[in-house]
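Changelog-adjacent note: as of this version, every example in the card shows the full chain rather than a window. The one below runs 230 residues end to end.
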Amino acid sequence: MNKIIVAIDGYSSCGKSTIAKALAKKAGYKYVDTGAMYRAVGLWLIQHAAEAMPDNQICESYLQEHIDELCISFALQPDGTQHTTLNGTDVEAQIRTLEVGNMASRVSAIGFVRRAMVAQQQAMGAEGGIVMDGRDIGTVVFPNAELKLFLTASPQIRAERRYKELIDKGETPNFEEVLADVNDRDYRDTHRAESPLRQAEDAVVVDNSYLTREEQMVEVERIFNERLNG
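Full-length structure tokens:
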């Protein structure tokens, strides 16, 4: 049976990665978290703030000089989870903070960064049998993907999910700040000049505002199997 490309796009905190990981495992496909790639670039900027972030502004010339030196990959763990590595170092925990998330949203709007990441992503999925999630997978990275999903939920619900995630990690977030961050990221993602977030015309929309993870997975599996057999 031919293996297809599954492109999953949508807003932040919609559970794209959770669904993508589960579907990839169920189908025996490779999984690529493209958001983690931009988070890794954002982390690198923070780590090199003196040169790369003078006055908290991204120095694009410095970043462009070094972008090809950033080796971002994914390492399978003994428990079956997948961790992001940056130049050989496991950075999975470091890239999941609000600070890095905000930086990722900023850096993902830079054209040469997106082109560098897209080239890597297309190479990863060249042979099919892959589930990839992000903001522009079905519109830019794989416009000819056999299955495109677009996940959405209300900003309030997505902020509540993100707030709980941070609490579970031992952080002490402020809900209003988390909600403001969700809205800010939505605006940046949909209004950036380079590959803005938008629903592909042939994408299947899944609004998971009031779906449990189990209910959402049942729906996504149904759509996947129909497309695979159709």
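Structural remarks: The longest strand covers residues 5-10.
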